[in-house]
Design brief:
The complex is a heterodimer of chains A (249) and B (308). Chain A has six helices and 13 strands. By secondary structure, chain A is of the alpha/beta class. Chain A has a single domain, classed as 3-Layer(aba) Sandwich (Rossmann fold), CATH 3.40.50.620. In chain A, strands 9-8-7-10-6-1-4-5-11 form a nine-stranded mixed β-sheet, with helices on both faces. In chain B, the strands form four sheets. A seven-stranded parallel β-sheet of chain B has the order 7-11-6-1-4-5-12, sandwiched between helices. Chain B has a five-stranded parallel β-sheet with strand order 15-14-16-17-18. In chain B, helix 3 packs across helix 4 and helix 6 packs parallel to helix 9. Classes of the chains: A alpha/beta (249), B alpha/beta (308). At the A-B interface, helix 3, helix 4, strand 7, strand 8 and strand 9 of A face helix 3, helix 4, strand 7, strand 9 and strand 10 of B. Chain A: Keywords: Electron transport, Transport.
Chain lengths: 249, 308
C-alpha cells in the first residue's frame, strides 16, 4: 500500500517569531525555516511502516512556495520515496490545503494519509480532519500509536483525560501527536541520495482548487508583555508576597 | 442570531471548558447546545444559564463522540445556525474542522476574543502573536480557548430538550476503548492553582516531591513536555502549545526552563512563580516571583510555610 504524507515548511521551532512593524503578519523573510515538527513525526511513522513491510511506497507532498522543495528533500532524506510540490502562495488556509490534498489523494490513491496534528505557525489543527471530511474517510487524530491489523488501522489517540483507541477502515487519515515516535536524523549519504529522488511540481491553479482565503487578517499584534517580576531570596518572602501582595493563596 | 455549542462531557459531567464555550457563544446571540450520550447529561445541559434549547443526540452511534457520525450530524443541523462553537479541547478539535469541511467553511480555532459576529482574535506562533481575523464564510465555526472566557453558570437555566434522530454517515470508524487516568486533584484546565514540574524534577519518583505542595494548595499538577517525554508524568499533564492551555490564578513552575512552547500554555496565568537553579532560565522573564535555588530544598520549605 501507498502512504501519502503532507509536510509544511514553517519558521523553525527554535526561533522566537517577530511581529512585523506594520501589523500585517509575522516576519518570515531571512528567518530559518524547517519542516513542521509534527510532520517529521508523520514522515517517520510512514517510513517505519514501509520498513516493517506494511507499506510499499511513501509519497510526501507540500503545498506552498518554491522553497518548500527543501522540506520535501528533507523528507526524502528521511526515507520518503518521492515528492510532489504544489505551488501556491505562502501558507494557504487549511481549507484550501485540504482541497488540494483531496485532488492528490484521488490521483495517487493512497491507503493512508498521515499528517502532523498541527502546524506550529498558524496553530490551526484542522487540515487532517478537513481532508477526512472531504474524502468521507475515518480519522485517527492526535495519534500516539498506530497499528495496521486485519485491513484496519488501530489508533491510540491522546484525549483530554487519557488515551482513547479507535479502529479505522482503510483508507484512513491519521494525524501525528508528539509521542507517536522520535523522528530520525537524515544521514549525509541519505541527504545526497534524496537529491536524486523524483520531485514533481504542479501548480495549485491546475488542480482546479479555489485557493482564495476565507479569513482576512485584520491585524497581527504582539501579545501584552508581562510586567517584569522580582527575584526573592527566601521561601518566607515568597509566601508573604503570595498571601499579601498577589493575594492568590 | 443563534449559535450552536457542541457540549463535551466526561463521566456524566459537563466539562468546565464547555461551559466557557457556552459563555462565549452568548456574546453571539441565542445559544442552543448539542449533547450526546445519556439523558442525564442532556438534563444537566438544560440547567446551564443562558441555554435556550438542548438538542440531544440519543442514538448509540453518538455515544463515544466519534468525529465521523458527529460531524455529519452537526453539518445537518447547521442550516439553523450562524455560529457553531466548541471548546478547544481534544473533542472540539477533532469534530469541528471535519464539520467545517462538510460545510465548506474555514474553521477558526482557539478564539480568545470575540470582536463581532465575524471578527475574532486568536493566538498564532505558540502565542507569540495575536491575529485578528475576519471570516467571509456564511457560517462561522469556532473553537474557544476556555482560559479566555469565564464559565457559564451550571445552574439557573431551564431549556427545552429536543431529541434528535440519527443522520446517515459512513461507518468508517469504531470505538475500541478508553483509558482515563484517575486523579483526585482538580482538572488542569479549570484549576485555580497549578503546580508544574519540568526536567529539573529528575525522575518519576522525585516528581512526587510536588504532591504535598499540590495537596496543601488544592492545586492541579502540570508538567513541561520534557517531564512528560522523560516519563515522569502522563501526557495529559502537559502544559504548552501542544498540550493544555491554562490560565489559573497561580502557576508555580519548578525546574522548568520556560521554552516558548511551554510559555504558550501558561503565560496568561494571573501570577507566575518560578523556582529554578539557573538564574538565566527564560521562565524568570515571565515570572512575577522567582527563587533561584534547588527546588528539592524550596518545595518542602514551601509546604511547611503554607501549613502555618
Amino acid at each position: 500500500m501507498k502512504i501519502l504524507v503532507p509536510v509544511k515548511r514553517v519558521v523553525d521551532y527554535n526561533i522566537k517569531p517577530r511581529v512585523k512593524a506594520d501589523g500585517s503578519g509575522v516576519e518570515t523573510a531571512g528567518v530559518k525555516m524547517s519542516m513542521n515538527p509534527f510532520d517529521e513525526i508523520a514522515v517517520e511513522e510512514a517510513v517505519r511502516l514501509r520498513e516493517k513491510g506494511a507499506a510499499s511506497e511513501v509519497v510526501v507532498v507540500s503545498v506552498g512556495v518554491q522553497q518548500a522543495q527543501d522540506t520535501l528533500r528533507t523528507a526524502m532524506a528521511m526515507g520518503a520515496d518521492r515528492a510532489i510540490l504544489v505551488l501556491s502562495d505562502e501558507s494557504p488556509e487549511p481549507l484550501a490545503v485540504a482541497k488540494v490534498l483531496k485532488k492528490l489523494v484521488e490521483k495517487e490513491e493512497p491507503s493512508l494519509v498521515i499528517l502532523g496534528k498541527q502546524a506550529i505557525d498558524d496553530d490551526m489543527n484542522a487540515t487532517g480532519q478537513m481532508l477526512a471530511g472531504f474524502l468521507g474517510w475515518g480519522q485517527g487524530t492526535f495519534a500516539s500509536k498506530v497499528e495496521l491489523v486485519d485491513g484496519r488501522a488501530r489508533v491510540s489517540r491522546e484525549v483530554d483525560g487519557g488515551t482513547e483507541e479507535v479502529s479505522l477502515a482503510l483508507p484512513a487519515i491519521i494525524t501525528a501527536d508528539l509521542r507517536l515516535n522520535e523522528p530520525r536524523y537524515a544521514s549525509l549519504p541519505n541527504i545526497m541520495k534524496a537529491k536524486k529522488k523524483p520531485l514533481e511540481t504542479v501548480q495549485a491553479a491546475d488542480l482546479g482548487v479555489d485557493m482564495t482565503p476565507r479569513l482576512t487578517v485584520v491585524s497581527v499584534a504582539e501579545p501584552a508583555e508581562r510586567k517584569a517580576g522580582i527575584k526573592l531570596d527566601s521561601v518566607a518572602e515568597l509566601v508573604e508576597k503570595l498571601r499579601n501582595e498577589a493575594k492568590v493563596i | 442570531m443563534t449559535a450552536l455549542v457542541l457540549l463535551d462531557h466526561e463521566g456524566g459531567q459537563i466539562r468546565k471548558a464547555a461551559l466557557s464555550a457556552v459563555a462565549a457563544a452568548t456574546k453571539l446571540g441565542d445559544v442552543h447546545v448539542l449533547v450526546t450520550g445519556d439523558a442525564s447529561v442532556a438534563q444537566a445541559a438544560a440547567s446551564i444559564a443562558g441555554v435556550g434549547k438542548v438538542l440531544h443526540a440519543a442514538d448509540a452511534r453518538y455515544a463515544h463522540d466519534l468525529a465521523e457520525p458527529l460531524a455529519a450530524l452537526v453539518a445537518s443541523l447547521a442550516g439553523g445556525y450562524d455560529h457553531i462553537v466548541a471548546a478547544a479541547g481534544a473533542f472540539g478539535k477533532n469534530v469541528l474542522p471535519r464539520a467545517a469541511a462538510l460545510l465548506d467553511v474555514q474553521p477558526i480555532p482557539d478564539v480568545i476574543s470575540i470582536e463581532s459576529a465575524d471578527t475574532f482574535v486568536r493566538p498564532i506562533y505558540a502565542g507569540n502573536a495575536l491575529a485578528t481575523v475576519r471570516s467571509s464564510d456564511a457560517k462561522k465555526l469556532l473553537t474557544i480557548r476556555s482560559a479566555a472566557f469565564d464559565a457559564a453558570a451550571a445552574e439557573g437555566g431551564s431549556a427545552t430538550i429536543e431529541t434528535l434522530s440519527a443522520v446517515d454517515s459512513p461507518e468508517v470508524s469504531r470505538f475500541e476503548g478508553v483509558q482515563l487516568s484517575t486523579s483526585d486533584r482538580p482538572e488542569l484546565e479549570s484549576a485555580r492553582v497549578v503546580v508544574s514540574g519540568g526536567r529539573g524534577m529528575q525522575s518519576e519518583e522525585k516528581f512526587h516531591t510536588l504532591d504535598p505542595l499540590a495537596d496543601v494548595l488544592g492545586a492541579a499538577l502540570g508538567a513541561s513536555r520534557a517531564a512528560v517525554d522523560s516519563g515522569f508524568v502522563p501526557n495529559e499533564c502537559q502544559v504548552g502549545q501542544t498540550g493544555k492551555i491554562v490560565a489559573p490564578d497561580l502557576y508555580m513552575a519548578f525546574g522548568i526552563s520556560g521554552a516558548i512552547q511551554h510559555l504558550a500554555g501558561m503565560k496568561d496565568s494571573r501570577v507566575i512563580v518560578a523556582v529554578n537553579k539557573d538564574p538565566d532560565a527564560p521562565i524568570f522573564q515571565v515570572a512575577d516571583y522567582g527563587i533561584v535555588g534547588d527546588l528539592f530544598e524550596v518545595v518542602p520549605q514551601l509546604v511547611d510555610a503554607l501549613k502555618k
